[in-house]
Design a protein that fits this description.
Elements (H helix, E strand, L loop, with lengths): L6 H4 L9 H18 L4 E11 L5 E12 L3 E6 L5 E5 L3 E6 L4 E6 L8 H4 L7 H4 E6 L2 E6 L8 E6 L5 E7 L5 E11 L17 E4 L2
Parallel strand pairs: 6-12
Antiparallel strand pairs: 1-2, 1-11, 2-3, 3-4, 4-5, 5-6, 7-8, 8-9, 9-10, 10-11
Length: 209
């Protein structure tokens, strides 16, 4: 369990027989979700996440902070119990493990752009093309249209201010990651330096290209 990553990091690692009414409902849900995300050019705040197995048993809890900026820029930092940092500038991605003094560097491809965290900072107009979306009781249920997507389903809920409140992500092994956001700021001014990473001296650099 020492190296178990959150779904946002590990993932970098509807049936077609729907009736017309269901298709229309999905289109409306996609538009509603897009309207909520569109005003958020950037977001920053804190998170607490819990990883559970297929039976609902808690495997790991962690917390940290994040910043995301459209299009496709992300800084996701996990603190205790196992510090890790993911940074991407929409072209290159760095995954840094300070305990191991190791950073993995890889280019950003379309698969990475489908990770849950980057959904918050991706292109809003791509939602309908990438996901089947349904809305139930104020929650949005997203299913990737590509079978090779890095997660199987996601549920996102917003608070009264239109900010993301919780996300629940299920992976291909049936494990779920529940994320609860707090202290969010909408459209903060973020420095471009936040979305680039310079490895500390002595860090082992692994290039996965």
């Amino acid at each position: 369990m020492r190296r178990k990553l959150s779904i946002f990091l590990a993932s970098l690692g509807m049936s077609l027989g729907l009736g017309m009414g269901a298709v229309g409902a999905q289109a409306d849900a996609s538009e509603d979700l897009s309207r909520l995300l569109q005003p958020l050019g950037s977001i920053s705040g804190n998170f607490r996440q819990t990883l559970k197995d297929q039976k609902g048993k808690t495997l790991q809890k962690s917390s940290g902070n994040f910043s995301v900026q459209r299009p496709g820029k992300l800084r996701w930092q996990t603190g205790e119990p196992f510090p890790q940092l993911l940074v991407t500038n929409n072209k290159k991605l760095w995954l840094y493990d300070p305990d191991l003094e190791q950073v993995t560097v890889r280019p950003v491809d379309n698969r990475m752009k489908e990770t849950p965290a980057l959904l918050l900072g991706g292109k809003v107009e791509d939602i309908r093309g990438s996901f089947s979306v349904e809305s139930k009781k104020g929650a949005y249920y997203l299913t990737p249209k590509r079978a090779s997507a890095p997660f199987k389903s996601m549920v996102i809920r917003f608070d009264n201010q239109g900010l993301p409140e919780t996300m629940t992500v299920r992976d291909g092994m049936g494990q779920t990651t529940d994320i609860r956001f707090n202290g969010l700021q909408a459209n903060p001014r973020l420095s471009s330096h936040m979305f680039n990473f310079k490895p500390p001296k002595g860090t082992d650099v692994i290039r996965d290209e």
